[in-house]
Amino acid sequence: MKAYRVKASDSELLDPNNAAWRTARPEEHPLVPTPLKGNPAIVAVSPFIAESTDHGSVRSIKAAALHNGESIAFHLTWASTGADKIIDLDQFVDGAGVMFPVVKDANAVTMGSPGKPVNIWYWKGDMNGDAFDVVAEGYGTSERRPGSKTKLQSSAVFKDGMWSLVLIGPLSTKDGTQFSAGTDSGIAFAAWDGANNERAGRKSFSGAFNTLEIEA
Known about the structure:
The protein is mainly beta. 7% of the residues lie in helices and 38% in strands.
């Protein structure tokens, strides 16, 4: 997919309904259940999660990308029941994430590996404008940083059974994204259906990195 360059402020890009997004070209990405059953790396982190077979109810996500030379934004839409509140201990909220390689040959399926980290922008339905900026070097190694520390923001709207989410952050950060205009990177997607008790590894994902072209 391609992140097109536009003349728009960060605040305009942050609005999922802003006119700037009419210039974007969204692409649909199929999602599949994250393979958990019997995975030794998952068993080591959570034997309960490793037994999961009924996750992955979100089957696709539509994504578009824009940048203004300083920040890059991703607009995601997907179908959901709209779970955005935790009412009890056994209830969960919807979520979505975009993942990027910090180094060229990082593995999206394993969430990176030692010395080959990935960067994940992770949103949950109850975060109200915030997001987590995550760095991982494999299963169970995620380091969550508040988005406020890396200037990562989110904005989400739920309407007619669809989430519209924007995640926006700097093109380049010290410990995460290292994008620059006129180059290629990689991107992968994940979604969590809170109504299906999805959290942590119980999710849908897009598999290996797709190419992300950043317009000069």
